[in-house]
Amino acid sequence: MKESVRKLGLIGAGLWAITEDKVNDLVKELIDKGDISKEEGKKAIQDMLEERKKQKLDLEKKISEKIQESISKTDVFAKKDMHELESRIETLEDEIQRIKNKEKMFFK
């Protein structure tokens, strides 16, 4: 019984990482040993699958938050930023060329 409870605890701790088939196999093993009834087994499977889904969603949310946090901390330029800088550079280059042309006319 102690080993069975330990297995159930391990299932709960890393539930998101195991398959539904593995959950079914572990619960079937507990039923076969007489540690739990079929009704308890069905309930355990349902509870574990719901917990697995919840853990998966929580993990995805945490990963997404960490990615967004990492992106916000970096100095990454967006395409929009790059286009804006290119436009400003072109404007400056045009102005430099205009000044050079004026100087050529003035010093002739």
From TrEMBL:
Q: Which InterPro entries match?
A: PhaF_PhaI (IPR008769)
Q: Which residues form a coiled coil?
A: 42-102
Domain of life where this protein originates: Archaea
Q: What is this protein called?
A: Polyhydroxyalkanoate synthesis regulator phasin
For this protein, the record's PANTHER family field holds: SLR0058 PROTEIN (PTHR38664:SF1)
> Could you tell me the keywords of this UniProt record?
Coiled coil
